Structure formats: C-alpha cells, structure tokens
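Researcher: We're teaching a course module on how sequence relates to structure. For the next exercise, students receive a sequence and then see the predicted structure as tokens, so they can try to spot secondary structure elements on their own. Here is the exercise chain.
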Amino acid sequence: MNRSLATSSLWILAATVVLVLALAPFDPMISQRAQGLPVTIVAFNKRITDFGTFAWMIYGSGTLVILAYVVHRVSRNETLTGKTRTAWRLPLYFFVTTGATTTLVHLIKLIVGRARPELFAEYGAYSLTPFAYDDLYSSFPSGHSAAVGAFFGAFSMLVPRLRPLFLLGALTIGLSRIIVGAHYPSDVAAGLLLGLWTAIATAFVFARRDWLFRFDARGWPLPKSMLPRP
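Model: And here is the predicted structure for the students to work with:
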C-alpha cells in the first residue's frame, strides 16, 4: 500500500473512532432536539435529504461512463480521442467511488445492526441486532451520509481549491439525516468519513494508472491538470 494512502487511512480511521466515541453518549439528546426543531427547518431538510441516495449517483455515473466510452472507442480524431478518454474516466471515478462506498456501507450496516432513532422508545439508542436483514436495524453508518461523503469527497479530490465548499455540502446533507430522524449523529459522522476515505482511496488507484490523477512529490494524488507533465 502507498505510504500516503496508509497514513491518510489511519488518520481517517482515528478521526472516525474519536468522533463516534465522542458523539455516541449524546446521540439520544441531539437526535431528539434535532427532530424538535421548527417545522419549517424540518420540512426543508426533508426536501434536501434524499440528494444523498446512492441510486442516482451510481446509475447516473454508470450511464455517463458507457456513453463517453462508446464515443471514445468510435472516435478516430487524436485530439478528440484524448478528450473522450478523460471524459469517460471522470464519471468512472464517481462510479467506482460510490459503488465501493455502498458495498462497504451495506456490509457494515448488516454486521452492526443498530436500531434507528424511530425505535428509540422501544430499544434505546444503543441496541444492536447483527444480521437482522431489516432496514429498521441499519442505522450505523448512515448510507446517505456515506454517499454524499463519497460524492463531494470525489469533487474535493478533483478540485482541491473548492474543498471547503464540497465538504460543507456533504455536512449539510449529513445533518439533515439527524433532523429528519433517520440517523444518530455518530451514524452520520461514520458515514461521512467512510465516503471520504473511499474517494481518497479511489483517487490513489486512479493515480497509479495515470487516470485523472498523478502523484506529487509526497505521493499524494492530485489532478493531472495541477501537475507538470512528467
């Protein structure tokens, strides 16, 4: 494994553990207060929360990959071929990132089996039912948060200058999951960081193939447009 990837993975894992442990004791209180916010705030978050679904990200990027790849294969113009090569690798990056994230999320959900906030009255905030095969026991980690963590994480890797803006977008959708009563804060923190890690790890894979990214002197993947040609 690339040393930079190993280091960043350890940092993200450490941040996930620290945040989950720090937030977990306050999960019930924050969840209840968030759901008790004014109706207009809750309604707004209900409108934006489903932006963080895997389906449209995977199907959308997958469709773009196929279309761009077909154009690339049929093109005989050298300039156009170079552009279409980049064009199909871009949605491929999003497709691989979101696809890997959803696989990891569903695996962890199944193993952990945490009851969602709607079951708080019956089971409390810390009830675990592994391998329940029931959506009511799939609170940890938040799938929507992981999806936007991966989606905006991918954008932050591609356009580093706008990274704070993309991370703010992911955080906004993540917080909406708490406000609408779908997840606890620790679920959201874990989901966001998992999605971010997947976006980073996929960028490393692409950089090794010289696709979209190239390693800088420190071994970190940066967009090829930001680095001089080797």
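Model: If you want an answer key for the exercise: The chain has one domain: 3-223. The chain is about 70% helix and 5% strand.
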